[in-house]
Task: structure prediction
Amino acid sequence: DKYLRKLEALLIVVDKDHSYVVSGSGDVIEPEDGIAAIGSGASYALAAARMLLKHTDLGAREIAEEALRTAAEICIYTNDSVSIEEL
Result:
């Protein structure tokens, strides 16, 4: 469909071993370090997650929560309402 070809959307898809970012046009990107972030505060959350992964023993959920909180403190377009769902 010609309308979906220009869809400007991103989706993070992860499993136990891999992380991917899927674009609206169907491109699949695998982050080098396995950490992915999207949205207005993505660069802040990504930086925080990288440092937490490197310098703490926190689990994936805790790193995600702290990275999102950090992004919300810095970026005026990112709110601090966080929902994380685990399977």
Remarks:
- DSSP finds two helices and three strands in the chain.
- The chain has one domain: 4-74.
- The radius of gyration is 14 Å.
